[in-house]
Structure formats: C-alpha cells, structure tokens
Amino acid sequence: MTTTSAEPNERDLVNGGLRKALVDGAIVTKRNLIKIKRVPDLLVFTTLSPIMFILLFAYVLGSAITVGPGISYREFLIPGIFAQTVIFGATVTGAGLADDMQKGIIDRFRSLPMSRSAVLVGRTTSDVLNNVIVIVVMSVTGLIVGWRIRSSVGEAICGFLLLLLFAYAFSWIMAVVGLTVASPEVVNNASFIVIFPLTFIANTFVASSRLPAFLRAIAEWNPVSSVTQAARQLFGNTGTAPLPRGPWSLHHPIIYTLLWVAVLLAVFVPLSVRQYKRAATR
Fold it and tell me: Residue 4's pLDDT is what?
C-alpha cells in the first residue's frame, strides 16, 4: 500500500505563492483605482497636461517645424507626446508609494496576511490602467487636431500596448525611488529633473538629426526615442521618405524598446521588492 505525503512540494508552494501574489495584487489595484475615483483631481490634472502639450506644439510651434515629406508635424508629434505622457504617468507609482509610506499605510499592509510583492504589483498595475485612460483622452484630442492612424488596427493596438509596456517597466524604477525618498513631493521634484530632459533629448518633438552632434548621439540611443519611433511606425506616422542612415536603435525600434523593457524589469523588480522590505521595517 502506497502513501502520499500531505506536505506540499516545492512546486505547489511556488504556484501557491504566485497565485496569492496575483490575487492580493488585484485587491491592491482595486484599492488604488478607488482612490482615483474618490480624488478625481489626480486624473484630471494628469490628463490636462498632455492635452496642453498637444495644443501648444500643434498650433504654436507646428507651423515652424518640418519633419519630412509625406507627413505633417501633428502626425509626427502625437506619438512623441504619447511616449512623454506615459513616462510621466509612471511617476505616479513613486509618489503613491511615498505617500503610503509617509502615512503609515505600508506598515498596515505588512500587518496583514498578504504577499509582500502585492503592494508593488497593485501599484504598478493601477498606474498602467490610469495611463490607459490618459491615452484614450489624448488620442481623441490628437484626432481633433489632425493626427491620423495610417496603419492597420492590429498594428495600432500593438503601438498602444508597446507604450503601456514601456511605461509599466519604467514605473518599477519609480517604485524604487518612491520607497527610498521621504515624501511624494521629493519624488515629483526628482522625477521632473530626470524625466524632463530624458524626454526632450530625444526624437519626441523634433527629429534627432536636427539636434547638435553631442546631443544627437544621446537622443539616438535614448530608449524614449526608440519607443517613440516604434509608435510612429506602428501608427503609420513615418511619412513616405525612407529612413535616413542612422543607428541600429532607430532602425529596429521595436526590438530595442523590448530589450529595454526586459532589462528594466529584470533589474528594478527585484530591487523594488528588496527596497520595500527595507523601507517597511524602518
């Protein structure tokens, strides 16, 4: 007669831990989305900023900037603003975690029988969903000012998904920042100092070939440039002229962006989990 052990094996423990992390993360995601619902100002001002950029660049600077044959500046512009906006939207992750740390909510989470990674998974996931809402509003605004999607539906969906995936990976960087600094105000100030030049020394608003030589090299290998170029290709906003000779990163922007996503997640997910454990015990 054979007997089976009642103790769970290692695979069961791993699967159970992953399932618990996903379930707990979904609960924390719901909590963060309810917070947005109760404080709609967060969503309103997050949405107004990119709309302002679209209107200013389209109507104030658009007539003075040329980007190449077969494409209007407004079609060139909108994917760049998409990229800038979702990256700035990822800063909500850091500010939200810093706010929870400051108010002692993280300590309350630690007292509950929940997965340690659930807070981070829930925070980053809810911010991606927030970015979805912002992108929808921006897309409508872009269509109003003259932006058009000139590719297939499938390619356009892939363009939006790539933007959200890059923003999700970037939000894990901000999670580390939010768990390290003392307050959400510090997160906002620190992220602005870094992200603002990161999104402008790129091909978001002008072609990288128009930048000075020392900035052009940075812009061409900047991941913000690659995700912007990838979005332009997937939306069909690259015009009729062939791409000029340039670096591998801009000739294969989708692959280059996915490589950056993989690196960011591989580095900053474990770092953020480790920082969460340290910060919560302070």
Answer: 43
